Amino acid sequence: MEFLIIDFILHIDKYIGIFMENYGLLTYLILFAIIFLETGLVFTPLLPGDSLLFVSGTLAASGSINILLLFFILSIAAILGDSVNYWMGNYLGKKISSKRFVRKEYLQRTRDFYDKYGVKTIIIARFIPIVRTFAPFIAGIGKMNYSRFLVFNVVGGILWVGIFVFSGFFFGGIPLIEKNLNYVIILIIIISLIPVFLEFFRKKR
Known about the structure:
Elements: H1 2-10, H2 12-23, H3 26-40, H4 50-61, H5 67-97, H6 104-117, H7 121-124, H8 131-141, H9 146-171, H10 175-179, H11 181-204
């Protein structure tokens, strides 16, 4: 299963192209579902996020997808995903986090981010894989005021989706990037993981 997810992430441009060929407008719904699940369920932190948004933007640049509709749909998916994740943490947090299918190191890593950044973690975590999935869950467990959470959720969701989708839209058409999109995806993943590794080594020291 993990190998399939890794293959999907590294070749996401091809998969989205296949979706477009076979499902047409339903591709928007498929992209919505992936972003919603990646942000909304603590069981699916390895689904693509940053790379999916960027590649979707590159397809919009080619005219395959409407950029404004894409931005709107994926922003809603990101905001709803975090909200669902928050309420899961609020109502089921202790029961779920005690199960083996939720990795304790992911929970602890997210708690460390909360200790360092406070409520701003909701926005910052949008740009950090894994932490992005667990931040709203931890906020729910901690009974953060939902109105306050929602403000940071909306701001973070719009920023995250907007930055990556429009980056793909404006830069994806450049021949160098277009021909080396797989390497660009890998670079995006590496860059997004840098804060996690820095925090890990800081804790070790």
